[in-house]
Write a structure and sequence with these properties.
Blueprint: H1 10-25, H2 28-37, H3 43-50, H4 64-70, H5 72-87, H6 90-93, H7 100-124, H8 130-155
Length: 163
């Protein structure tokens, strides 16, 4: 994933990786496959199910509003990843591109994006409670912790922002 294109930006590469993760592993087809074919009591099965956490769905019978509300968490994970990749200074402070600080900045961006996306959707959707929002934020942060290294690898070697 760590492409060596001198014109590639770290936020762009990380956001593209996040979008691909959410589109593929958040799809209804993958989520159904993971639920039916993996054992949640094994590490591999747990991780394969975790990949489907920011799931989305598209049903032609639903209105556009209900589709957006149902898929808000998946949308926010991608948007907030981009935001945090621009805001986190780790790779800005690094002397050379491709250092470990870029890996950790990309990884941390995904942890924060998952936590905040879950927190916001828990507070905005039906029957919000503070405890439910905290639990959801914990689930989102756990998703970011165990999957965010992929985003960190995608940001390696990229430049910060536009020049």
């Amino acid at each position: 994933m760590a492409l060596t294109n001198r014109y590639r930006s770290a936020p762009g590469a990380g956001t593209l990786a996040a979008l691909i993760l959410v589109l593929i592993f958040g799809s209804p087809w993958y989520a159904d496959w993971a639920a039916d074919n993996t054992d949640p009591d094994t590490a591999g099965g747990w991780w394969l199910r975790l990949l489907a956490w920011p799931h989305w769905r598209f049903d032609s019978d639903d209105s556009l509003r209900s589709i957006i509300l149902a898929d808000l968490r998946a949308i926010l994970v991608v948007v907030l990843t981009l935001l945090f990749l621009y805001l986190l200074p780790g790779s800005q402070l690094a002397r050379a591109r491709g250092t470990i600080s870029q890996l950790f900045a990309g990884w941390a961006s995904y942890v924060f994006a998952g936590g905040f996306a879950a927190l916001l959707t828990a507070l905005l959707l039906a029957n919000p409670s503070l405890l439910g929002a905290f639990r959801a934020a914990g689930e989102g942060a756990a998703y970011g912790l165990f999957v965010g290294w992929i985003i960190g690898l995608a940001t390696l070697g990229g430049r910060r922002g536009t020049r």
